[in-house]
Write a structure and sequence with these properties.
Blueprint: H1 4-12, H2 15-32, H3 41-59, H4 71-74, H5 79-89, H6 91-101, H7 106-109, H8 118-131, H9 138-142, H10 146-156, H11 161-173, H12 176-179, H13 182-211, H14 231-235, H15 290-293, H16 302-309, H17 320-334, H18 349-356, H19 359-362, H20 365-378, H21 382-390, H22 393-398, H23 405-418, H24 421-428, H25 432-448, H26 451-464, H27 468-476, H28 479-488, H29 504-540, H30 542-547, H31 561-574, H32 582-590, H33 592-602, H34 611-625, H35 629-635, E1 638-640, E2 646-648, H36 649-657, H37 666-680, H38 700-726, H39 729-736, H40 746-760, H41 764-770, H42 774-777, H43 780-784, H44 794-812
Antiparallel strand pairs: 1-2
Helix pairs in contact: 2-3, 2-5, 3-5, 3-8, 8-11, 10-11, 10-13, 11-17, 13-17, 17-20, 18-20, 20-23, 21-24, 23-26, 25-26, 26-29, 28-29, 29-31, 29-34, 33-34, 33-36, 34-37, 35-38, 36-37, 36-39, 37-40, 39-40, 40-44
Subcellular location: Nucleus
GO cellular component, one term: Cul4-RING E3 ubiquitin ligase complex
Keywords: Nucleus
C-alpha cells in the first residue's frame, strides 16, 4: 500500500522543480517581451501546462468543490498556491496578459497586419482559466473591452477559444454589475438560446458515445505528462483500503459521537490544512469502512471511482466534457435572473439537467456537479422548484452516488427546495420510504460531505423541522446526534485542543459551523416545543380539542415569539415534574446544554458576522430546555471553557443579560432574561396551582408520590435561587431596571428583568437582601415605573408596572405601592 508520504510524492512530484521551471519560463518571457516580433503563445502555453498539472494534483486532495479561496490559503503547502503567488508577483505579466494578449487585434497593434491573433488569444484565455483560483473576478470586468470580446467569442469564435471564452464569461457573470448591465442583458438574450442548443448537441454526442460503450470518464483524466512514470500510483493513489491508513477519510459514524470525519486525502485530520473541510480532530487514525464510503460504487474499480472523487477535466486538449462544463458554468449565474425563465418554456431545461444526473450512465460526476449548480440557480424561481418536485425530481437527487462532488452539490439543491414551503409540502406527500431515503442521504451529507455540503445539509434539515413528517424521521435516524457531532470536536469548543494554532480562516469557518448548528438547535427545539405543547393541551384541555385542529404532518408548523412563549407556559403548567421528553432528553444527554453555554461564553471574543445570531439561537434553545428540572440543575454547575477556566452556567446567562457577551444586542439580553425567568419563576411540583394532576391524587400512593415530587421541586428551586443570588444575580437584574438603551427595547428589558426579580424575590435570602437596598427603601423603583422610556412601548411598560407591583409586595409587603 502507498503511504501518505508516497502519496504526496506521487501526486506532487518534485515541487521545487515545478517552481524552478515556472520561474525560468517567466524569465524567458521577461527577456523576450520587448521585441516586436515576440510571439507569447509558447510561453503562455508552457505556463498553462504547469498550472494545469499542479491544479490536477491539488484536485487530487479532494478540496471542497465550492471552495473559492486562494489555494495557498486552503493548503499553504500546495504547489499550485505557490505557483499562483509567484505569477501574480509579476505585475507586468499580469497586465500584458489582460491588456494585450486577450485582444483580438494583438498583432495588428504591433504592425503585423497579416498575422492572426487567434492562437495568442487561445493561449491567453487558457492561462487565465488556469489562474482563476487566485484571480479577483473584478479584474475581468475592469479590463477595458474584455467582457464585450468574451461575448463575441462565445457567439462566433472557433474552438477552443469559444469554450475558453464561455468559461471566462461565466466567472464574470457571477458579478451582478456584469449580469445586470443593460447591454450585457441584451447579449445574454441572444447567446442563451445558442449555448443551450450547443449543450443539447454536446449532451447528445456524449450519450451516443455512452451507448457505443466509450468511457466518458476518460475525458476527465489528467494531463498525460504526469501519468508517467508513476501512472500506476496515480491511478490508485490513496492507501485507504488498508488497516493502517494514516489518512482520515469521510465515513459514516453509527458507533461514536466524534465520528464526523472528512476525507482529507492530503493531510492527517489534526493538521487542519483545509479549513473549509471539517475534520475529526482526534489524533486517532481510522481505516475506511469501504462498504459505507463507497456504497454507491461497490462494483467499480478504482480507475472508475477516481473520476467521481477527484473528477478533474481537461482544459487542453479540449474535450466534450470540458465544453459542457463551461456552458453549464455560464448558465448557472444567469439562471438566477427573471429574464432566464423565458428560455425555459418548452425548452426541456430540467430534462437536460436530469440527463446529467444519470451518473451511472455518464460515469462523470463533474458534469452532474455543474448541472446541479445550474439547477440551484434555476431554483431561485419557485416555479422551477415546484416543477422539479412534481415531476419526480427527488429520487433523481438521492440517486447521485456518494461520495462524490456531485453529492456535495445535491445539498445546495435540497437547501433551495427547503426554502419553498409549497414544494416542501409536495415532498412531504411522497411515499414514506422515499422520505426515509431522503433523510438518510441528508444525514450522510451532514456526517461525511465537504464542509459546504455539510452546511447546506444542516440548513435543509432545520428548514424541514417545521414539517412533522420530516421531524419524526429525523428523530428516528438519530439526526440530532449527527448535527451535534459536526462541531463537538472543534478546537474552538474544546479546552484540550485550545493550544492548536488556528489560522484566521480556520477560526472563521469553525465559528460559522457553530453558528449553523446553533440555528439548527433552535429550530429543532422550537419544533419539539410545538409538538409537546399540543400533546399536553389535548390531554388536559377539552376546549383545545374542540377549538383547534392540529396542523397536518405535511404542513409547516412554525411558532411566532408569542406562540412560543404560550407553549412554554403550557409545558410549565401541565408537564409533570419528572416527565419524560425523549427528544430533549436526547439533546441533553449528548451535551447540548453544555455546548450552548460554551458557545455563549466564548462568543465574547468573536468578531465574525452572525455572532449575535449564534448566541441568540443558543439562548433560545436553553429557554426551552430550562423547563426541565435537570437543565436547571445543570445551569447551577460549573462548566469548563476552552480557555481552561470554569464558570457556573447561571453566571454566563447573567453576563449575557447585562450585555457583556454581545454589546448593543437587545435581542441577546431579552433571550437570556427569558431563560432566567423560566428558572427563577418556576413553580412546578409544589405550588397549589402548578399541576393539573393535583385533584386526581386520591390514593395514598399518588399522594406520597405527589409529596415526593413537591419536595424535589422545592429543593430544586431553592438551589436555583441560591445559585443566581451567589453569582451577583440580584445586582445584575436590578441594574437592568435602569436600562435606557437601546431605546426601542429598553421597556421590554426592564419588564423582563423585573419579572426575573419577582421570581427570585420568593427566596427568603434574596428577599432579605433586596429589602435593604436603596431602590426599595427610597422609592426609586416607584420613580422608574412612572413613565416608559419610549412612549410607543406603553404595552411593555404596563408589564413592567405589574411586575414592579408584585416585586414590591414580595419585598416590602402589601399596600406599599
Amino acid at each position: 500500500m502507498l503511504s501518505l508520504s508516497g502519496l504526496a510524492n506521487a501526486l506532487s512530484g518534485n515541487t521545487s522543480t515545478s517552481l524552478t521551471e515556472f520561474q525560468n519560463i517567466i524569465k524567458t518571457w521577461e527577456e523576450s517581451r520587448t521585441s516586436t516580433s515576440f510571439d507569447p503563445t509558447d510561453v503562455l502555453t508552457k505556463l498553462s501546462e504547469l498550472l494545469e498539472k499542479e491544479h490536477e494534483h491539488y484536485a487530487a486532495s479532494d478540496p471542497d468543490p465550492f471552495e473559492d479561496r486562494h489555494p495557498h490559503r486552503v493548503d499553504p503547502e500546495c504547489q499550485l498556491g505557490q505557483l499562483l503567488k509567484h505569477f501574480f508577483k509579476k505585475e507586468s505579466l499580469v497586465q500584458d496578459l489582460f491588456n494585450n494578449y486577450l485582444k483580438d487585434n494583438y498583432w495588428i497593434q504591433l504592425g503585423q497586419t497579416r498575422r492572426d491573433s487567434f492562437l495568442v488569444n487561445v493561449a491567453a484565455a487558457r492561462l487565465v482559466l488556469g489562474i482563476l483560483p487566485a484571480l479577483q473576478t473584478s479584474v475581468i470586468m475592469e479590463t477595458s473591452g474584455l467582457v464585450g470580446r468574451l461575448y463575441s467569442w462565445v457567439e462566433n469564435a472557433k474552438e477552443p477559444l469559444q469554450s475558453y471564452a464561455t468559461g471566462l464569461l461565466a466567472v464574470a457573470s457571477e458579478l451582478s454589475d456584469v449580469a445586470t448591465d443593460p447591454e450585457n442583458r441584451e447579449k445574454n438574450g441572444r447567446i442563451i438560446p445558442i449555448i443551450l442548443q450547443r449543450l443539447r448537441k454536446y449532451q447528445s454526442e456524449m450519450m451516443e458515445e455512452v451507448k457505443q460503450g466509450q468511457d466518458i470518464s476518460s475525458n476527465t483524466t489528467t494531463n498525460p505528462k504526469i501519468d508517467s512514470p508513476n501512472s500506476n500510483k496515480f491511478k490508485r493513489p490513496f492507501s485507504i483500503f488498508g488497516k493502517k491508513s494514516p489518512v482520515q477519510v469521510r465515513r459514516s459514524s453509527n458507533e461514536a459521537l466524534d465520528s464526523s470525519s472528512a476525507l482529507d486525502l492530503k493531510k492527517p485530520p489534526d493538521d487542519l490544512s483545509n479549513p473549509m473541510r471539517h475534520n475529526n480532530f482526534s489524533k486517532d487514525n481510522s481505516s475506511l469502512n469501504q462498504g459505507v464510503l463507497f456504497e454507491n460504487w461497490s462494483n467499480s474499480s478504482w480507475a472508475e471511482m477516481e473520476a467521481q472523487i477527484i473528477c478533474h477535466f481537461r482544459i487542453h486538449p479540449l474535450t466534450l466534457v470540458g465544453k459542457q462544463v463551461f456552458i453549464l458554468r455560464l448558465l448557472s449565474p444567469l439562471a438566477e435572473y427573471q429574464e432566464f425563465l423565458s428560455f425555459t418554456v418548452d425548452s426541456g431545461v430540467l430534462e437536460l439537467i436530469s440527463n446529467y444526473l444519470k451518473v451511472r450512465e455518464t460515469r462523470n460526476t463533474r458534469l452532474a456537479f455543474e448541472a446541479l449548480r445550474f439547477q440551484a440557480g434555476l431554483f431561485c424561481h419557485k416555479r422551477m422548484v415546484m416543477e422539479w418536485v412534481t415531476t419526480g425530481g427527488i429520487p433523481k437527487l438521492i440517486a447521485i452516488p456518494r461520495p462524490s462532488i456531485a453529492s456535495t452539490a445535491v445539498s445546495q439543491v435540497l437547501y433551495y427546495i427547503g426554502c419553498d414551503d409549497d414544494s416542501m409540502e409536495k415532498v412531504c406527500l411522497l411515499p414514506h420510504n422515499l422520505l426515509e431515503d431522503l433523510v438518510k442521504y441528508v444525514l450522510w451529507l451532514i456526517e461525511c460531505s465537504h464542509d459546504s455540503g455539510r452546511q447546506f445539509a444542516i440548513m435543509f434539515s432545520y428548514l424541514s423541522f417545521s414539517f412533522r413528517v420530516f421531524l419524526d424521521i429525523f428523530d428516528q435516524k438519530d439526526g440530532i446526534r449527527m448535527i451535534y457531532n459536526t462541531v463537538n470536536t472543534l478546537p474552538i469548543l474544546n479546552h484540550e485542543d485550545n493550544r492548536i494554532l488556528l489560522s484566521d480562516d480556520q477560526e472563521y469557518l469553525q465559528r460559522q459551523s457553530v453558528r449553523q448548528v446553533m440555528v439548527a438547535y433552535k429550530k429543532y427545539t422550537d419544533a419539539q416545543l410545538a409538538l409537546k405543547a399540543e400533546q399536553l393541551k389535548r390531554f388536559h384541555t377539552r376546549e383545545f380539542v374542540e377549538s383547534r385542529v392540529s396542523v397536518p404532518n405535511y404542513k409547516p408548523n412554525r411558532l411566532s415569539p408569542e406562540q412560543s412563549q404560550e407553549c412554554i407556559e403550557t409545558l410549565v403548567n401541565f408537564m409533570p415534574f419528572k416527565a419524560k421528553w425523549p427528544p430533549m432528553d436526547k439533546f441533553i444527554q449528548l451535551g447540548g446544554i453544555t455546548m450552548c453555554l460554551k458557545v455563549i461564553a466564548i462568543a465574547y471574543d468573536w468578531s465574525c458576522t452572525g455572532r449575535s445570531e449564534t448566541v441568540r439561537s443558543a439562548l433560545d434553545c436553553l429557554c426551552i430546555a430550562a423547563i426541565l428540572p435537570k437543565v436547571q440543575l445543570q445551569l447551577c454547575e460549573r462548566i469548563e471553557l476552552p480557555d481552561d477556566s470554569k464558570t457556573v452556567g447561571f453566571n454566563i446567562l447573567l453576563s449575557a443579560a447585562e450585555g457583556e457577551i454581545i454589546q448593543d444586542s437587545s435581542e441577546v439580553q431579552k433571550a437570556s432574561l427569558s431563560v432566567l425567568i423560566n428558572c427563577l419563576c418556576s413553580q412546578k411540583g409544589y405550588s397549589s396551582n402548578s399541576s393539573s394532576t393535583t385533584n386526581y391524587c386520591s390514593s395514598s400512593f399518588l399522594l406520597k408520590k405527589k409529596l415526593a415530587n413537591s419536595k424535589s421541586a422545592e429543593d430544586l428551586i431553592n438551589k436555583v435561587w441560591d445559585c443566581v443570588r451567589t453569582n451577583n444575580g440580584i445586582m445584575a437584574l436590578l441594574q437592568l431596571l435602569h436600562t435606557k438603551t437601546p431605546i426601542t427595547d429598553a421597556d421590554a428589558i426592564r419588564a423582563l428583568a423585573c419579572k426575573a426579580l419577582t421570581g427570585l424575590g420568593r427566596s427568603p435570602a434574596a428577599k432579605q437582601i433586596m429589602s435593604k437596598l436603596p431602590i426599595f427603601t427610597n422609592g426609586e423603583l416607584q420613580q422608574l415605573v412612572r413613565e416608559p422610556v419610549l412612549l410607543d412601548k406603553r404595552g411593555e411598560h404596563v408589564k413592567f408596572q405589574q411586575y414592579a407591583h408584585d416585586l414590591l409586595e414580595l419585598v416590602s409587603g402589601p399596600g406599599l405601592y
